[in-house]
Amino acid sequence: MGAKPKVAFFDFASCEGCQLQIANLEEEVIGLAELVDIVEFREILTGKAPEYDIAFIEGAITRDVDEKKIKDIRSRSKVLVALGQCAVSGGIPRLKNNNPSLDNVKKMVYGDKYNMPHLDTYPTKAVNEVVKVDLYLPGCPINNKEFLRFVKEISLGIMPKLPNYPVCVECKLKENECLFDLGQICLGPLARAGCDAICPSNGVPCEACRGTVDNPNKNAMHEILEKYNYTVEEIKRKINIFGVDPEVKK
Ligand code: SF4
Ligand code: SF4
Ligand code: SF4
């Protein structure tokens, strides 16, 4: 990949919270700048570049014009990384696809102006539904330490791997009281770890914003649901919040 890889960041439909996580790295950004050459990053730079060794894509694809743009970026990128859950699975923007009519969605948001020509009825797509994605960095938002690890490993020619064990492991290591015992539904038994169980450690149930582990222990989850009197439907409703797509390759 050469001495100093050219790295670029692009955003599509998102809250830009994942890019903000990177901008918030503060002094660690200096170490990042020593490792890579950041050639495009709208939040902090004005420059443009013709091609990229690593392109980080934040956000879901929600318009025809985005589809053209992401295809162009892909054609000029050696490694393309889906950055954050909006890009990985469609995330929160994908919730609109649950509505049977995308015209209804436009009416709900724009009222009688819903027919404005720039508002199309394109369904929200994850990046890998439009172009080939080489790597997935999940989370809503991403974990910026994990982002740094990804950059270092890709720069060294190593394909980074995500933890493939559930959030419960990290939660138990922290000796937290289980939220099921406190009357809350938590997706920790299914969710992919790597966030240091930040939500349950602060009394907030996990919503699997990093997707699920490759082979979730469904039997264990059923036992928990039975023990605490919850239904599979209640879990499904929660797991759909982040549009977790079991087909997404991690
Ligand atoms: S994944 Fe979450 S934090 Fe990141 S851009 Fe999407 S909504 Fe924002
Ligand atoms: S609180 Fe959630 S993550 Fe923690 S042990 Fe209980 S189910 Fe697992
Ligand atoms: S605890 Fe769950 S919802 Fe919270 S950051 Fe980790 S994976 Fe996401």
Protein model, in words:
- This protein has helices at 17-23, 27-35, 64-75, 85-89, 102-110, 144-155, 167-173, 218-228, 232-239, and strands at 6-11, 37-41, 52-58, 77-83, 135-137.
- It has a five-stranded parallel β-sheet, sandwiched between helices.
- The relative contact order is 0.14.
- The protein has two domains: 6-155, NADH:ubiquinone oxidoreductase-like, 20kDa subunit (Rossmann fold); 167-240, no CATH class.
- The chain is an alpha/beta fold and 250 residues long.
What is shown here, in short?
With 250 residues, the protein is an alpha/beta fold. It has nine helices and five strands, in the order βααββαβααβαααα.
Helices and strands, with pairings:
Blueprint: E1 6-11, H1 17-23, H2 27-35, E2 37-41, E3 52-58, H3 64-75, E4 77-83, H4 85-89, H5 102-110, E5 135-137, H6 144-155, H7 167-173, H8 218-228, H9 232-239
Residues 167-168, 171-172, 176, 178-180, 186, 188-189, 197, 200, 206 line the site of one iron/sulfur cluster.
Distance between the termini: 22 Å
Topology as H/E string?
A: EHHEEHEHHEHHHH
- Quaternary arrangement of the chains shown? single chain
Q: Proportion of β residues? A: 5-15%
> Within the CATH hierarchy, at the fold level, what is the topology of the largest domain?
Rossmann fold
The CATH top-level class label of the largest domain: Alpha Beta
Detail the poorly predicted runs.
Answer: 245-250
CATH architecture of the largest domain: 3-Layer(aba) Sandwich
Globally, the shape reads globular
Task: Work out the radius of gyration.
Answer: 19 Å
Strand order of the largest sheet: 2-1-3-4-5
Report the bound ligands by name, code or SMILES.
iron/sulfur cluster
The averaged pLDDT comes out at 90
**Total helical segments:** 9
Instruction: Assign a percent range to the helix content.
Output: 25-40%
Strands, total number: 5
